[in-house]
Amino acid sequence: MRPRVTIIGSGIAAVATACEAIRSGAEVTVIRGRPGSTALSSGAWDIAGDPLRFAGTPWQEVRSPRESLQELIRRLPHHPYRLLSLHDQVGDLPSFLSGAVNRIARALDLPLHGEIGRPFLALTPLGTVKVTAYTLPTHGAGNLLEMQGARLMVVGIQGLPSHPAALIASLLKKNRHRSPSLSEITATQIAPERIPKTLSPVQVAHSFDEDEAIDSLHKVLVQQAEKVRPTHVALPPVMGIRQSAHILSRLRETTGIHWFETLGLPPSIPGIRLQESLDRYFRLTELREGTVTSARMERKRVVALHIRDDEGRDEEFPVDRVVLATGKFLGGGIAPGTFREKIFNLPIFHNGNEIGARPVGPVVSRHYLDPHPLQSMGLRVNPHLQPVDDRGHLLLENLWAAGSILGGYDAAREGCGVGVAVGTGTLAGRLASERFAAHA
Amino acid sequence: MLKRIHATFYLGTHLMIRFMKRLAGRPGKGAFLRAYATERLVPLTHEEKGLLEKISRCIACGLCDLACPATVNPDGTFPFFGPSALPFLSRSVPDFTAAPFSPKTCGECRECEKACPEEVPLTKIIEFIKRKFEEVRR
C-alpha cells in the first residue's frame, strides 16, 4: 500500500514537501489555510547570505551561496542546515538544495534565474542591493554582477510612490565605487494611460493585466527607451499579475535590450504571483481548503485532524502521516503570546531551551540589526525532522516538520529562508513517504 | 501664602461642583451629539472600539485588493480602491464623509476576508463605516 502523506501549509516548505512526496510515490493531500509569508516574498529565493560580508564589500567579492552555505554550517551548530548536512539521505548539501530548487521550479512551471555557485545581486526599490541565490523570472535579467559596461535606466510610474526612480538611481550612483561595471545610470518617470489613481501597487498591477493598459504601457516604455538608449531597464515590480511574462518578453522582442523588475516590498506583487503559482500546483494534488484547528492523538500518534473551512464548518480528517509546514507567526504556526505550536500544542525552543508560558528574557532586541530570539525560536527536531521534547524524546511518531516552524535559524539575518524551507521540506517529504519510515 | 490659600479654595470649590454635577446625572448622548455633531463625531459602542483594535492586525500585504471583485469595472474604470485602504480610512470617523468613495460599491461577498492572512474582520469594518457614514451625515 502507498503511504498517505498529509501536508499542512500553503508556502514553499509545503510545496517542497509535496513535490518530493509525489516523486517518492506517496499519496499526497495538502490542507491549505490562509496565505503566510510566501505571499509577501520579494521575488528573491535566498539559500545562504554571506556571513563575512560587511556594508562596504565590493560586489565582485561577495561569496556564492555554495561557499556561504559551508560558512553558515561551520558557524551555527543548531542551524537546520547542519541537521540536513549530517543526514545520509542528503549528501552534498549545496547540490541537494540546487537539485530540489530546480525540481520545484519545473513543477511550478516557473523558470527561476540564478545558480548555487554564483551570487545574484538584485536591485531593490529602496536603491539597495540584495544578495540572493535565485530570483523569479521577471527579475532574471537584473543581476548587477552581469551588467558589464551597462547603461541602466530606472523607471518610475507617476502616482506610484513605492518605486522612486530618482532616489534609486542616485543611491546606485553613490555606491558606484562598489559597482565599477555600470557605466551610466539614469532615472525616468512615465505616465501610462488607464491606470487607477490609487496608492495600492496591487491595483496598478491588476490594471496591467488588461490589454489596452498593456498597449499604452508598452508604447510609453519603448518611447523612453528609444530616447535614453539604455542596455538594461529596471521597472517597478507592478508589471501585471498574470501577464508579467508576456509584458516583459514583448518589450524584449521590440527593443532587443534587457528589461527586469526590481524586487518587491509588501504589498509585493512578485510574492502574490508566487503564491498564485503555488496555489495552481496545490490544485493538482488532492487539496482541502481550511484551517487545521486541532488534532486527535492516540498513543503518541496523530490519528485525525480537525479542519475548519471558511464558512465555519468543522470536519474530522483521518491521517496516516503528517508533515507540519505551517510557518511561524505570519503563517500562523505558532500562537502569539502563548509560545506553543498551535495544532499539536508542541513546545517551542530557543537556543535549545524550552520557552514556557512566558519567556525568561526579552524576545526582541533593542537594535534592529541585533539577533532577535523571536525570529529564531521554533520547534526542536531530531535528525529525521521529527519534533522532540526538551530531553530529545520523540513527541509524535508520525509527524514531521519543515520550513520556518523549525527553530535555530534566523531567515532575515542569515539570508536562508527559502533554502531552509526547500531543504527541510524535501527531506521531510522523502522521509514521510518511505514505506517503512523510521518510526511511523 | 495668599496665593496658596486662593489655589486651595479654588480646587476645593471645583471638586464640590464636580460631585454635585455627578449627583445630577450624566449629560448623555444628546448632549454629546449637541457638542460634537459639528465636528462630525458620533459616539462609539464598546464592540465598535474592540473592532477598531482588530484593525491594527493589518500587515498591508495587499492580498485583499487582489481578491476583491469590486476594484476594477469591466469598462476599465476603478470604482473602489480596494479593501486594503479600509483599515487606514476607518480610524477617523470625521473623515468618513470626505472619503473619495461610496461604500455602496462593496457588495459584501466576503472574498477579502477569506484572503486575509491575519483574519482582519474586513466585512465588519465596512459595515461599521457604512453605519457611521449614515450617522455622521444626519
Give a brief outline of the structure.
Chain A has helices at 12-23, 65-75, 80-86, 93-108, 165-174, 201-207, 211-228, 244-255, 269-284, 373-376, 411-414, 417-432, and strands at 4-8, 27-32, 44-45, 120-123, 129-132, 134-135, 150-157, 182-190, 232-235, 258-261, 286-289, 291-298, 301-308, 314-318, 321-324, 348-350, 353-355, 399-401. With 440 residues, chain A is α/β, with parallel strands linked by helices. In chain A, helix 1 packs parallel to helix 12.
Write a concise keyword list for the protein shown above:
heterodimer, A: 440 residues, alpha/beta, four-stranded parallel sheet, 18 strands, 30% helix, 20% strand, globular, B: 138 residues, mainly alpha, Fumarate Reductase Iron-sulfur Protein, Chain B, domain 2, 2 domains, 51% helix, elongated
What does this structure look like?
The complex is a heterodimer of chains A (440) and B (138). Chain A is of the alpha/beta class. Helix content of chain A is 30%, strand content 20%. Chain A is built from 12 helices and 18 strands. Chain A has helices spanning 12-23, 65-75, 80-86, 93-108, 165-174, 201-207, 211-228, 244-255, 269-284, 373-376, 411-414, 417-432, and strands at residues 4-8, 27-32, 44-45, 120-123, 129-132, 134-135, 150-157, 182-190, 232-235, 258-261, 286-289, 291-298, 301-308, 314-318, 321-324, 348-350, 353-355, 399-401. Chain A has a 5-stranded parallel sheet, with helices on one face. In chain A, a hairpin with a 2-residue loop joins strand 16 and strand 17 (353-355). Chain A starts with a strand and ends in an 8-residue tail after the last helix. Chain B is mainly α and 138 residues long. Chain B has 2 domains: 1-39; 44-137, Alpha-helical ferredoxin (Fumarate Reductase Iron-sulfur Protein, Chain B, domain 2, Orthogonal Bundle). Helices cover 51% and strands 0% of the residues of chain B. Chain B has helices spanning 2-23, 28-36, 46-55, 63-67, 86-89, 111-115, 122-137. In chain B, helix 3 (46-55) packs across helix 7. The mean pLDDT of chain B is 78. The chains are: A alpha/beta (440), B mainly alpha (138).
